[in-house]
């Protein structure tokens, strides 16, 4: 881990740890309020959480009060529309954060899909030492559950029409709401946006957000990088679908070195913004899924980011891929699915994922370690000189698989230019080797040969094979560019052959 990363993470975790030290020691007593909490379920008269409904004007919200049906009318609650409730997280400064208004606006900006957008404002309970705020999450969960139950009793309304969106500690609040609501049916959906890690990681499902808490639970993990055994966002899967953008541990554009750029944009506010950047990225990915609906980001099921980076996981078969954010396909599976994807550093976050597979024939005794660059030409655009590092010496006949992501939609891939990039040094060595072993005289016994490149586009699930444009010259040479085109002719021949057989 580079030290520039550690600074903000350390700072944030320091706050967590320090507040844990001041609070009571985490342990069984941390969640000891459960029995009392269950008792109060039926009798809750007033909530400490303020429920604010947002009408079309982007005002401050209209307060809905438990057991006051008149407030539903005053605020313009429409029981035939779905209810989306935003639940914020832990607060250091006692202020509602800016992303809340951005998310409200994004949810309200959907023409033809009106909904009741409510904020569960529990800031007075969240503005405490972390450990105490954690303890309050159960109470707030009960209050949310009480409000939903009361809605069902007061107006024609169903909990299956409810979508809770919880950020950080708010994700666990939503989970508790889902388990406290009781009854035979569950809340429709819960989205956990970088659900908080400290004091929740590794706990039993009833002590955190889990797939049991709603008919469908999706989660986005964006800041799970560990420091001193703790991470701000929870690492373990907590939903039916858990998305890990860029591996989930840290996010592009959130590097501490970009602080200067942020200061220019946001003034001194930038310091806290930079610290929260990766954590809050989960929210902005979700907002992006609402604002750029036509550019959905796809996540692909994979065991870890390493395999994903080799391009090994771009399958959509049997629900192995899903859409990140609001428009996720709600197919609950018994087993939680972990999905990976790459994103850009800012909105729109979508990238296009490609897997490439190349197999060299290396007739040199020693493995060679060249670096390559590929240019991709598609029906809608092109991308020049994408560097490729294979990470190890090229040995004979091994297949190399790697992931390439493009910010831009180049359409259907039609041509690949493959260039052996480095350096004059290699060219010299190569020439020397060629002089000693004059392969040129025996074309079939060449140095490094690349005949085909196989590609798969994640977003379209299209598979393609590319052949050297000039099939008589398949040798790679330093600094020389080779053109590969689709091998349709070849594959047709192949098909004819197999049919004939
Ligand atoms: C409530 O919502 C429904 C469905 O969107 C709509 O048809 C109806 O007009 C709304 N009622 C009011 C009073 O706005
Ligand atoms: C690699 O493949 C070539 C051509 O298919 C074959 O002649 C050669 O023996 C293979 N080399 C190794 C080490 O398997």
What does this protein look like?
The protein has twelve helices and 19 strands. Helix 4 links the parallel strand 3 and strand 4. It is an alpha/beta fold. Helix 4 runs parallel beside helix 9, helix 6 packs across helix 7 (169-180) and helix 8 (259-266) crosses helix 9 (269-291). The strands form two sheets. An eleven-stranded mixed β-sheet has the order 2-1-4-3-5-6-7-8-11-9-10, with helices on both faces. The protein has two domains: 6-341, Rossmann fold; 352-496, PLAT/LH2 domain (Lipoxygenase-1). The chain starts with a helix and ends with a helix. One 2-acetamido-2-deoxy-beta-D-glucopyranose binds at residues 78, 80-81, 114. One 2-acetamido-2-deoxy-beta-D-glucopyranose (NAG) is lined by residues 361, 396-397. This is Hepatic triacylglycerol lipase isoform X1.
Properties at a glance:
single chain, 501 residues, alpha/beta, Rossmann fold, Lipoxygenase-1, 12 helices, 19 strands, binds 2-acetamido-2-deoxy-beta-D-glucopyranose
Summary, kept brief:
The protein is of the alpha/beta class. It folds into two domains: 6-341, 3-Layer(aba) Sandwich (Rossmann fold); 352-496, Sandwich (Lipoxygenase-1). The chain has helices spanning 3-22, 34-40, 69-75, 99-108, 123-126, 130-154, 169-180, 259-266, 269-291, 305-309, 424-436, 488-500; strands at residues 50-54, 62-64, 83-87, 116-121, 162-167, 187-193, 214-220, 241-245, 298-301, 321-323, 337-341, 352-362, 372-378, 382-388, 399-406, 413-420, 448-457, 462-468, 481-486.
